[in-house]
Design a protein that fits this description.
The complex is a heterodimer of chains A (427) and B (340). With 427 residues, chain A is an alpha/beta fold. Chain A has one domain. In chain A, 19% of the residues lie in helices and 33% in strands. Chain A has seven helices and 28 strands. In chain A, the strands form eight sheets. Chain A has a six-stranded mixed β-sheet. A four-stranded mixed β-sheet of chain A has the order 8-9-1-13. A four-stranded mixed β-sheet of chain A has the order 5-12-10-7. In chain A, a hairpin with a 2-residue loop joins strand 3 and strand 4. The longest helix of chain A has 21 residues. Chain A is globular. The N and C termini of chain A lie far apart (50 Å). In chain A, 60% of the residues are buried. In chain B, the strands form three sheets. Chain B has a six-stranded mixed β-sheet with strand order 2-3-1-4-5-6, sandwiched between helices. Chain B has a four-stranded mixed β-sheet with strand order 10-12-8-13, covered by helices on one side. Chain B has a two-stranded antiparallel sheet with strand order 9-11. In chain B, helix 4 links the parallel strand 4 and strand 5. Chain B contains nine helices and 13 strands. Chain B is globular. Chain B folds into two domains: 161 residues, Response regulator (Rossmann fold), CATH 3.40.50.2300; 119 residues, no CATH class. The longest helix of chain B has 17 residues. Chain B has 340 residues and is of the alpha/beta class. Classes of the chains: A alpha/beta (427), B alpha/beta (340). Strand 28 of chain A pairs antiparallel with strand 7 of chain B, so a sheet runs across the interface.
């Protein structure tokens, strides 16, 4: 039987990709032939909010001897039309379903917030030296947004203002390339509606951390905390349906940038039609109560069974607490006869000899290691730092040489599978 | 001649049982207790030149391992052998720590205990070989320990075949393929029938048998928490995540924690409500009421605290054993441990 793809699939999304090789600050925000210029005055205006007294922007680019400290969220510039409409629904605009049509992407750029928020565990991203390869920000030109809270503003209001500011800036920067000729055009079909050529239908379960203020994730602008698992078109993430407001566990953080470029989704898409059919994406909250964790996990597994998925890749955000969501979900899937693979960071102590995970599945056994959370990495002194003057965790100047656990390096243990770290037994 | 120092607890050194658990470290020349049989099994070419022992409770106290190591080094050993500790938690932990400290000091070292002993995960890169569950299995346990010690002394690595329980250290490496790509490879391997494929060996978690019931009306009860509740300003700098230690603070005599005098530094939850009323983390108010009403015999005047957020299982287990020893020393029969 001839293998047919597009006529079985959902409408799909087209990415119009514009590469950015050079960045600058200037009088006007402008994109031309790989050069992105940002007007600081316009950026400040876009980020303005009653909760923010002051906003500063600067560039930090790959290979420069610069360290971003107190990294919060990172967002990739994307736009669907003039004035930034259509992306980040529920944050910037109305909550209309997204994930179809055309989306302009500024590839090679991230808009990054850096500074103090309560409950935000300090994150570090080096753009040069050995740790640069451990963070997605080591590869992108980063427009770093620093801020001072307004007098009397609640921290919750400051956080919401930052979240809106990053999305607004990201949409504005991408809209500068709306009329530019694309460097690449990528068509992303919707998920397969039924199996083709006898290939297994493999999907992804993505647990979103939902543990209250400053540790929350927003879907169509609302906290996903009270929700049940939802089967979504992965293309919705491309248009910013999932926005992070989660600032704990730096090494295990899933920034908005990685939801827009979901590594497991990208891999399943790439292999769709070759050795598997990409079946779809299930978003799940990570509730704090055990009975809710159990309910969500059982429900997610049932949803996958009803949808006829053959196997799932399960991911999380966060540390040991989120391991419980992983273990419950993987076991619930296996109990229904659906093989489950989970991505875990090991928490095996600095010397790598302790038990690797806090809560292990009992039925499922297939786990991918994204590195050891506790392993210490030596960072060299760097000439410049943005985001703060000190790394409070070790009480050192932000530009100094640092000995830090991998857990502190932004996205170094990416639960979404962005990175190349793993662990092996020493011989 | 391989010079060996053998580490034992007070019981196996023949000093005494629980009543001697607080004894400080001491050293005597030559083998003692099970060391005599161990020396015979090791045979010519090996000599147990000294036995160092310490009370089980004392061995978990801060600084005890350093004192023990000083005694060990005074005997100038080539190899340090600790145990077998069977399923005794405090003894196993001491054996593991003493062996790990000896390893850090550049000595060859080896510990022996049952696989359920929490000390197995505390030895770091030092090998721990299996023993039976109790002293009734002393004979075969010593045979395995002697064989492993000989192998180690000859410069050979110990593996599962030698009864090694703890895995070699796992180190971070960069791979060609991303985590996501490897996850999809693994899912396809599973679908292809490979049930064993994984990058992470499943950890061994043993069920814990609860202690027997106590009569609360006569018991001394302690309050413990992993909620990061410390005196305001966090004078001892307890970590908000990835805690490596625990602390002990006196409870205010009036039976309440004044708002503003205490704060939670826990990094895993919003501390606003904890700081608004510290009793939400440490229920001293209701515990004091219960004491007043005679439903609780007596409250221990100190509380123990750590932060349970991103804590490694190894550290969490260690805290548990250290707390148990600390509470036993203080004569406590029951605890209320609040989790966040």
């Amino acid at each position: 039987m001839r293998y047919v793809r597009d006529d079985l699939a959902a409408p799909g999304l087209t990415r119009i990709v514009h590469r950015v090789d050079t960045v600058a600050l200037g009088r006007e925000t402008h994109y031309d032939a790989g050069v992105l210029t940002v007007s600081p005055a316009e950026a400040k205006q876009l980020a303005a909010d009653p909760a923010l007294r002051e906003v500063r922007v600067s560039w930090a680019s790959p290979g420069e001897p610069v360290r971003i400290v107190k990294v919060l969220d990172a967002v990739e510039p994307r736009a669907k039309g003039a004035n930034g409409g259509g992306v980040f629904p529920g944050v910037l605009g109305p909550v209309k379903p997204v994930g179809t049509g055309e989306t302009h992407v500024l590839r090679g750029v991230a808009v990054v917030a850096a500074g103090f928020l309560p409950r935000a565990q300090e994150a570090v991203a080096d753009l040069a030296g050995p740790a640069a390869a451990l963070s997605p920000l080591g590869r992108t030109h980063n427009l770093v947004v620093e801020f001072s809270p307004a007098n009397g503003a609640t921290w919750e209001a400051v956080e919401a203002a930052l979240r809106r500011a990053l999305c607004r800036l990201a949409a504005r920067l991408a809209s500068a390339a709306l009329d530019a000729p694309p460097d690449a055009v990528e068509h992303l079909p919707g998920p397969a509606r039924r199996a083709g050529r006898g290939l297994p239908r493999v999907g992804a379960i993505t647990n979103l951390q939902t543990q209250g203020s400053f540790k929350d994730t927003f879907v169509y602008g609302r906290s996903f905390g009270p929700s049940m698992p939802a089967l979504v078109d992965p293309n919705e993430l491309d248009d910013g349906a999932v926005v992070s407001g989660q600032y704990g566990h730096p090494g295990l953080k899933n920034p908005t940038y990685l939801y827009q470029n979901h590594p497991v989704v990208a891999t399943l898409r790439r292999r769709d039609g070759d050795d598997l059919r990409f079946a779809g994406l299930v978003l799940c909250p990570e509730p704090v109560e055990q009975d809710r964790k159990e309910l969500v996990s059982a429900h997610a597994a049932r949803l996958c069974a009803i949808a006829g998925f053959d196997a799932m890749v399960v991911t999380k955000e966060g540390g040991g607490n989120a391991d419980a969501d992983m273990a419950l979900k993987m076991d619930a899937l296996e109990a229904l006869g659906i093989p489950a693979v989970g991505l875990f960071a090991e928490m095996a102590g600095a010397d790598g000899t302790g038990p690797p995970v806090v809560v292990a599945p009992t039925r499922a056994t297939a786990m991918v290691s994204t590195g050891n959370y506790d392993q210490v990495v030596s960072l060299p002194a760097l000439a410049r730092a943005v985001g703060g003057e000190r790394v409070d965790l070790v009480d050192r100047p932000a530009t100094a040489s640092l000995e830090l656990p991998t857990a502190v390096l932004y996205c170094a243990l990416s639960p979404l599978g962005w990175g190349r770290l793993t662990c092996q037994e020493a011989s | 001649m391989t010079r060996i120092v053998h580490y034992l607890n007070q019981f196996f050194a023949g000093v005494g049982a629980e009543e001697a658990a607080g004894s400080p470290p001491a050293s005597s020349a030559g083998p003692a207790g099970p060391g005599r049989r161990l020396g015979t099994l090791l045979g010519p070419g090996y000599e147990i030149v000294a036995t160092v022992w310490c009370g089980d409770d004392h061995a978990t106290a801060p600084g005890a391992v350093d004192e023990i190591l000083t005694l060990i080094r005074a005997a100038q050993p080539d190899l340090v052998v600790a145990g077998p500790a069977f399923t005794s938690g405090r003894y196993g932990l001491a054996c593991a720590r003493v062996a790990a400290a000896a390893g850090d000091a550049g000595l060859l070292a080896l510990a022996a205990m049952h696989e359920d002993n929490p000390g197995v995960d505390e030895a770091g890169a030092i090998p721990v070989v299996a023993s039976g569950p109790s002293a009734r299995t002393m004979g075969p346990s010593l045979e395995r320990l002697a064989a492993a010690a000989q192998k180690l002394a000859q410069g050979e690595p110990l593996t599962g075949e030698d009864g090694r329980l703890n895995r070699p250290a796992r180190r971070g490496v960069l791979t060609e393929r991303t985590g996501a790509e490897r996850a999809v490879d693994l899912v396809l391997a599973r679908l292809g029938g490979d049930q064993a494929a994984t990058e992470i060996p499943l950890p061994r978690f043993q069920p814990v048998s609860p202690a027997g019931p106590v009569d609360p009306a006569t018991a001394v009860v302690a309050l413990l928490t992993e909620g990061g509740l410390v005196p305001d300003g966090n004078p001892d700098r307890l970590e908000s995540a990835r805690a490596t230690r625990w602390l002990r603070y006196p409870l205010p005599p009036k039976g309440e924690l004044p708002v503003g005098d205490y704060c939670s530094i826990h990094g895993g939850f919003s501390t606003a409500w904890a700081n608004e009323d510290p009793h939400r983390i440490l229920p001293l108010d209701v515990a004091t009421d219960l004491e007043r009403e005679g439903l609780v015999g007596r409250l221990h005047p100190e509380y123990l605290v750590t932060t349970g957020n991103g804590t490694s299982v190894g550290n969490a287990r260690r805290f548990g054993v250290e707390w148990a020893a600390e509470l036993r020393r203080a004569g406590i029969q029951a605890v209320i441990l609040t989790s966040t």
